[in-house]
Amino acid sequence: MVESFEYNFEIMNANAGKGNALLLLENLLRAERQEAIGIGDSDNDSSMIKASGLGLAVSNACETLKSLANEVICSNEEHALAYVLKNYLL
In this structure, how many other beta carbons lie within 10 angstroms of the beta carbon of residue 45? Predict the structure, then answer.
């Protein structure tokens, strides 16, 4: 059970989460952890950042996530995905 916002309460399987989903996807694709990029802005992205080879936090992310990330990039309002494509993939 997680309270992610003041009026938002989430109930889910303890093994569910973005990190486990990314690990499963890496396994299905036979990809190495180093090939995965995780991008997030909130505490609920922590497991994904840890499961990725490159963990990126957007500049408007919570401080906890920024401390876990390898790098802090532009905010999600500044087209973070386009930024990642241009600076990390192309």
Answer: 26
* 26 token code pair: 């890496």
How high is the pLDDT of residue 14?
79
Rounded to a whole number of angstroms, the distance between the first and last alpha carbons of the chain is 39
Q: How far apart are alpha carbons 20 and 11 in whole angstroms?
A: 16
- Cα–Cα distances (Å) from 84 to 35, 55, 74, in that order, read 13, 11, 9
- Of 71, 53, 51, residue with least CA distance to 61: 71
pLDDT 10s digits, 27-74 = 999 999 999 999 999 999 999 999 999 999 999 999 999 999 999 999
